[in-house]
Structure of Iron ABC transporter permease:
Amino acid sequence: MLTASSDNQLRWLSITLFGLVVALSLLPCLRLLSEALSHWDRGLDAPLLSILQNPRTWVALQNSLYTSGLGTLISVVLGSGFAFVLTLTNIRYRALWIFCFMLPMMIPPQVTALSWLQLFGPASPILNTLGIAPALGSPQPMYSAEGIALLLGIQHAPLVFLALRSQLICLPKDLIEAAQLSGASQWRLWIDMIVPLSRNAIFAGAAIAFVSALGNFGIPAMLGIPAGYSVLPTLIYQQMAGFGNDVLSEVASLSMLIAFLVLIGMLLQQWIQQRSSYSLIGHSAQPASFRLGKWRIPTQILLCAVLCLILIAPLVALVISSVVPALGVPLTADTFTFAAYNEMVNNQGSTARAFTNSLLLASLAALLLMIITLPLGYRLMRLSLKARAVIASLIEVPYAIPGIVLAIAFILLFSRPIPIINVTLYGTLTLIFLAYLSCFLSVCLKPVMSALSQLDPALEEAAQIAGATPIQRLINIVLPLISPAVFAGGLLVFLIAVNELTVSALLWSAGNETLGVLIFNLDESGDSILASAISVLVVVLVASLMALLSLLAPRLPKGVIPWHC
């Protein structure tokens, strides 16, 4: 039975944690909403109505829907194909295929865009090395709506893969075997059973991919801005560079437009997932498996060819671009040079500063969120299902909305000095840090909640009978048991935050650059060779962290590491 002291500990812990959730999740969104709806006394000149009357808004909206829609179609084709083959067949090296297919999602979008820019066009070092580069003056094919859509599709195909794979794993093997014993061919099994049962999962994955594509900033910025092709996130970025009394109100209105579209996508995805929740009689908890037989080697060759096209070739182009003296120069024994890496290490103060800032922000965000999510998850698991769902949804909002929208919300919230202490956070690393905490809280919390849900409550009950307080039980019993999940959550946050661009693109200032901002600025200023060298190191860092998480995966609950099968 709880003592008065224990009861007070729980009460103050709950008040502190939920107050933190409100501060990180609710306040920025409310401030954004209030600014978007401000100045209604001006009538048709109100910022929101001005934005809705501006033709650029509707052009950017149309472009966003086109690139996101086409990108989603590409994501569905790629993600579904890999999910069906890697989940339902006896393909070899399954874990390796999944790891490689998930890698594009974890690589920062600006690095993905840069690698594809180095792969095509007359200045491509790899095409010049092979002697097949187009003539000088030829257009760069990636500077187009279709180029943006292609990379959005590749970047978000793993989201469709994950959504569909989770459904396919639940397909019972005995149901498939019963149909086979009845004489059904493999073709009829796919058409009459597997596709209908997994249709809703495909739609749910498509909705997630579409929402993610709508909020993606790095790819449309690097491929669209040079071509004068605007989507909603890049229009907000360009609008922030303008002047006038209503700039913040106008970008807040644009941000609400994106948030509204994302909200519709989220609701659609949740509705589809609810419809796809069903139980099957005879579930054996063992996924179906089709033997490829003589088709296994051709299938593996096809998978390898696709991965070489969407992953290996762009990365090779990126590496070659980093070791030549200038764009358009073929790679030979005479032109091979580490000058860009030497420049990055020895002469570029902004590079060292960006690495330091990104590593510092990502490390502190991961560490603090690991500390926060342990007691937060502990308290959430002790709430009713309805209350837990409400708070979890509130925590999800900053991560679900586009990063550029969250950045605008934090600019509005902290553009003026904080009352009482009179400290200004705008233009400082602290503001980026707070935005990271808000954005990545749900990323770190999910593994913790997953691990807590699998704990045996008898352990805590025994400690409670022995007189242990809630804090003692949390530290001495719960923490040792779920520490791998807490560590995995922190690593996931670090992995995402260290390369983040969308949030920091609007929050950075001189001296406070992050890696994502630095790569974007270098490419925009024409120094693509140095940007390529930095991007190569970023890819190595991402792959190394993913490998570390894979090594940790056997000690974690299923689903914590997305690419672990």
